[in-house]
């Protein structure tokens, strides 16, 4: 049997499949469920200092090849989230990654410092959600902003590895990843959703109440592969959680070939009955057929 184990900044995973943030990760039970289904690590829904309601309905649509959502980062606030993370850390049996977001570098540092008390294995900074800021205003759209947030958190939280989650809709994602690494990021998560829109021609209006949303699912995979490959070229040694549109073992292998150390699974949980168990099995089958014994052997050479 091929060895599917991997490591992210010293955190060991039995297999490389990581539940993506916001996907069935709203509470401890759902994180534990993903772990039981075979995830190698699980990421919680992004939380902020204060509770947040999110956008009006409809907030999501699903088509055979893509999903579009503008949930608007609804969450119960960090104090309630601490309890969920504590419970998941105790019971999931796999590393728990806590995702946080905020509107300023100071608030990012404050929310990260609070969530750290729940002792997640990794803290992930969601600086790339397309649904909360005006266009082009994500922290991840500017290397300077991304560096400011990363530095502010690293000054406050030293004991837990920090992964910065980047957006695909930037001219040079590799340069932003490199800037984050220089500022102290221990890893990169790539990618978040891609800003998009769908229109109901008969109703003559945008389908989502927010008009714009984030594209995920199979249609995102080629974009995500290019982004992960660019981050790997810019940062040859940084741990990368690569994801976006992965729905099969071969897709996971593509992501590992592009340079990822672990592979996030998001929308696939709606496309497949038992996404983690099945994708893990397919990846192992692919490796066996192709004569790969360990994950690092899969990576493309150039
Ligand atoms: C309904 C929904 C909610 C999401 N919420 C978050 C979130 O709170 N924080 C975050 O960093 N990403 C969030 N994402 C983005 C996913 O974590 C992932 O980066 C994206 O969906 C691409 O991966 P996929 O194609 O495998 O779904 C969300 C995605 C979806 C579909």
In short:
With 302 residues, the chain is α/β, with parallel strands linked by helices. It has helices at residues 28-37, 78-91, 105-115, 143-156, 173-182, 221-234, 249-258, 268-271, 275-290, and strands at 6-8, 11-13, 17-19, 41-43, 60-62, 67-69, 96-100, 122-126, 162-166, 187-190, 194-197, 199-200, 205-206, 212-216, 240-243, 262-265. The protein is built from 9 helices and 16 strands.
Overview of the structural elements:
The chain is 34% helix and 19% strand. With 302 residues, the protein is α/β, with parallel strands linked by helices. The chain has one domain (6-298): Alpha-Beta Barrel (TIM Barrel), CATH 3.20.20. Strands 3-4-7-8-9-10-15-16 form an eight-stranded parallel barrel, surrounded by eight helices. The longest helix has 16 residues, at 275-290. The protein is globular and about 50 Å long. The model has no long low-confidence stretch (mean pLDDT 94).
Features:
302 residues; eight-stranded parallel beta barrel; four-stranded antiparallel β-sheet; 9 helices; alpha/beta; 34% helix; binds flavin mononucleotide; TIM Barrel
